[in-house]
Each structure stands twice: as C-alpha cells, then as structure tokens.
Automatic annotation (TrEMBL), chains A, B:
GO terms for biological process: chromosome segregation; DNA recombination; DNA repair. Mg(2+) binds at T82, D84, E97, Q116. The lineage of its organism: Bacteria, Bacillati, Bacillota, Bacilli, Bacillales. It comes from the Bacteria. Keywords: Cytoplasm, DNA damage, DNA recombination, DNA repair, Endonuclease, Hydrolase, Magnesium, Metal-binding, Nuclease. This is Holliday junction resolvase RecU. Its cofactor is Mg(2+). It catalyses: Endonucleolytic cleavage at a junction such as a reciprocal single-stranded crossover between two homologous DNA duplexes (Holliday junction). It holds the Pfam family RecU. It is found in: Cytoplasm.
Length: 196, 196
C-alpha cells in the first residue's frame, strides 16, 4: 500500500478535496476509472485482456450532417443484460460486475439487476470465473466477492426481505483487493490465489 | 438446409422481396439478426452464453425530464476497440467478429479496424477461440474463418497492397456454417469439429 500514512483516501479526497495536498488529488478516482486503469495495465503488460462493455443505448434518432460525423439526437439508456466486464485470463473466461457504495454498514442489492444475476449464474455453470468487485468508498476498501458467496444473499432476499449484504459478511467471505500504483484494483492477484 | 429448393435466399429476398411468397420474407434477415437469434437459442438451451456487445456511444448531452426517462440528446458513434461478440462455450472463451458483403468475388478488409485485429491476436494468445463469421450475401453462404487463417491476409495487405481476401480463399480456408431453423448460423457446430 503505497501511502505515506498506510491508508488510501479516495473517498475522503472526494469529500474534502480542498484539505488535501494537490499531489493526492488524482487518487480521488471512481471505482470504474480505477478498474479501467487496471485493465489497461493488464493489457499493456500482456497479462490479461479484460474490457468494460459499452453502456447499452437504445438509439432512436440519428442526424447525418454533411461532411461531419453522425449525431445521435435521441437515445435512451437500456438496462444491461450482462455484467459490465469480461475477458480472458490464463485461458479462463472472466466475468464480473463492479459496484461502489458510500454505505458504511451494508451493500445494498438494489444496484444489481435480476438478469445480471442470471447471467452470472450461467457463466459460472459454463466454467467461467465470476465475481463482484465491491468498494466501500468511505473505508476505501475494495473486495473481491466470489459469485458463489454472493448468490445466497441474492436468493434469500426474496425470502427474508433483506435487500443488502452486511459489511461484516463481505469482509468475511470476500477478499480485500490490494492496491498497486498501476494495477489500482489488482483483482487478478486474488484470482491467482483462488484458481491457480 | 430446410429450404424447398435447397438454397437460402436472404440476399435475394432483400433485393427483390416483392417477387417472393410472403412466407419466405422473414428469411430476409441480416447476419446480425441471424447471429442474435442463434445466440438466444444457445442460451435458452443452455449450450453457450454469447452476447453481442452494445454499440459504443460517446454520450455528450443528457436531458433529464421530470417523471420520465433520461434522454440522450447528443451522442456520437465510437470506433469499437474489440470484436462485437464474446462469451463462453464448454469452458472456453469465445470471441468473434461478423461481417457480410454483397461482393461476389472478394471480402474487403476495410470493414475491420486495426485495433480489432490487435484484440483478436491478444485473445488468441491468451487461449481464446477466435474467428470471423463472413457472409457472402449474394450466394447466401456464411463461413467460419479461423482468426489464424485471417491474420496473414490482414498483415500482407501492408506489403502487397491487396485490401481484400478472395472468395475462393475463404471457401478453401473457412468452414461453411450450417443453417438450422433455430441456430440460423450454427457456428458452435464448427467449433465442436475444430476444438472438441
């Protein structure tokens, strides 16, 4: 953990950026940006090929001006039917979803859609490596939670009505993902431990 | 090949739809629709999980009307940096690009982008199954061309200036993909032959 005080401070930077020295300000990145940086590093070093899927958009109207690029003038966001990230690592298919929360005690399930879960279950059944990356931004802790540990919470919510996973359970069943300067969310190090 | 005369007639239907009986008209589908139907069938029968990636869009302006969905009012098409399709089959990572041409003698390389080729080469190096699906719509023939057979043509164009692959070469190095009513482009049958 390359921090002077041994602590990361993304969330705090975002809230109180003015109180921190300028040189820390680029650490106030979102989880998505951190993962994109990590994936680029994995690709550049030929470690893995993992991409974020584009945001699905329903395109309704496109304008074609002369001599310049087509402009989408009416479009709508569609609900994704798969996870956001997939690719290949050491010959294995990788598939995951990433979410961050400012909640200090639980991870709300409301950010995940039913068909994303179906997708994750199918990929796992077909032999893929499937997981969630969950960041508690106030603690600046990012966890790797195997899909198999996540599914029971998802399925139970329809019985017990609990629409979230306690922070403690994620701490217990998940793996804290180490931070490195270039691999900011170094989730492949966890996959190495678990699968290879 | 479930056709009265043993031939598919997609391309012909599209050109001369009025001359053909109504009941054939739904065969005038594009390659993309045929592949989507096939992937849905693979998924529904739990054979494989393969999806088309959403079209990448650069979103510039979004309008948030009260009480209704957000509207993208300005967006632009971005060049894709990966192939259009990927997923998992029998534990293996699958990655492919699909293109159709009305050209009768050659497949023009201009439809494929340089970074898509880099992507395919990386995926192959990491152990994925990578290929192109190429349809000659006037013959209504759809070929599976292994990426390894495609790369030399791509690389050679910068030496010999030939910006296309002859139809005969694709016929020779590719595999004619069978048509089935539900798996309209049954490319997994070719993968079964080649890999399992």
């Amino acid at each position: 953990m390359h921090y002077p005080n041994g602590k990361r401070n993304n969330g705090i930077n975002q809230l109180y950026a003015g109180n921190y020295p300028k040189k820390f300000s680029n650490r106030g990145m979102t989880l998505e940006k951190d993962i994109n940086t990590t994936n680029k590093f994995y690709k550049d070093t030929n470690k893995a090929v993992i991409h974020k899927k584009p945001t699905p958009v329903q395109i309704v109207n496109v304008h074609y001006p002369k001599r310049s690029a087509a402009v989408i003038t009416e479009g709508y966001f569609k609900q994704p039917s798969t996870t956001d990230y997939n690719g290949i690592y050491r010959g294995r298919h990788i598939d995951f979803e990433a979410k961050e929360t400012r909640n200090k005690t639980r991870f709300p399930l409301s950010n995940i859609h039913h068909h994303q879960i179906s997708h994750m279950k199918s990929i796992e059944a077909h032999g893929g490596i499937v997981f969630l990356i969950i960041r508690f931004s106030t603690y600046d802790e990012t966890y790797y939670l195997p899909a198999a540990s996540f599914f029971p919470y998802w399925d139970e919510q329809f019985n017990d009505g609990k629409k979230s996973i306690p922070y403690g359970a994620i701490k217990e069943k998940g793996y804290l993902i180490p931070f490195h300067f270039q691999a900011r969310v170094d989730y492949l190090s966890i996959i190495d431990q678990l699968y290879f």
